[in-house]
Hints:
- By secondary structure, the protein is α+β, with helices and mostly antiparallel strands.
- It has one helix at 2-27, and strands at 37-44, 47-50, 54-56, 60-67, 73-79, 103-107, 112-118, 123-128, 140-146.
- The strands form two sheets. Strands 3-9-8-5-6 form a five-stranded mixed sheet, with no helix packed on it.
- Copper (II) ion is lined by residues 73, 129, 131, 134, 139.
Amino acid sequence: MKIKLFAGLAILGLLVIILGTAGIAQASLSAGPGQPYTIYVTVKEFKIWVDTPIIPAGVPIRFVVNNQGVLAHEVIMEKLGADDASLKGVEIHPEAGKENHAEIESVSANSNKSDIWLVNDPGSYQLACHVTGHYQAGMVTPITACYDLRSCPHNQN
Ligand SMILES: [Cu+2]
């Protein structure tokens, strides 16, 4: 009985290590074969943060938004300093009949939503929530797009 319990705990421990390692790998900018780069964006009242503020220009990127708050939020990508002027024509799979723009709208509490965007121009951008009052309350974070991620001058604003 004790041996079985020990074996069970050992397997559990191993699983925790394996899953933990996968979590770490997921948290960095990475792309598998045929897979877009993935950026993880977390939102809550009233903050936005990203797992990396530097993104590759000219490469499709999946933005995965996780809402850890209690209110619905949205994530819009726009030029640094803009106020509700989402980038146009960047969606890889635009919804039929809808505008092609960098907006992930209506992310409800405790849920995820994602979209794949291709940003061709290197430069300074921001991710912001433009639900009324949220941007003003601090829901904005700068990100920088570069062709060469190793020499990307990220401006923290
Ligand atoms: Cu918001």
